[in-house]
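Lab notebook, design round three. We kept the backbone fixed and only want residue identities now. Task for the bench partner: fill in a sequence for the structure below.
Input structure tokens:
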């Protein structure tokens, strides 16, 4: 009889971790679902200021143009001749996405217009330039 009592006391003293694990998994799922995933071009540029800046909601294809005329798409440097191909690939993944060019304020206007033309040749007609609100 003492063995039964001893076994019952051990079972009564054990802590059941199942509810705690359930709560941890629910919290993990909550944070994964509510986390915001920000797309970045891969390089920081000093955007020009504008008084007519507007917020763009569906900007999914980001292209950065640096002050020394480098083009960055999807966190990697891209040759200027390959801009259209990369935009076509990203546009195929998300057909409703718009192209936003994040050009440095000292970037070449010639390269900026070449990137915009490449986006239009790739079939994306919603092209805009990112600026800082003045």
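Proposed sequence:
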């Amino acid at each position: 009889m003492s063995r039964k009592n001893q076994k019952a006391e051990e079972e009564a003293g054990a802590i059941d971790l199942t509810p705690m694990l359930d709560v941890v998994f629910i919290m993990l799922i909550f944070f994964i679902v509510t986390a915001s995933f920000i797309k970045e071009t891969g390089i920081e540029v000093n955007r020009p200021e504008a008084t007519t800046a507007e917020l763009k909601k569906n900007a999914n294809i980001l292209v950065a143009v640096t002050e020394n005329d480098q083009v960055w798409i999807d966190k990697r440097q891209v040759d200027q001749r390959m801009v259209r191909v990369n935009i076509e690939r990203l546009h195929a993944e998300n057909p409703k996405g718009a192209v936003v060019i994040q050009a440095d304020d000292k970037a070449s206007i010639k390269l900026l217009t070449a990137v915009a033309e490449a986006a239009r040749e790739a079939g994306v007609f919603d092209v805009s330039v990112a600026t800082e609100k003045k």
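Keep this in mind before ordering anything: The mean pLDDT is 79.
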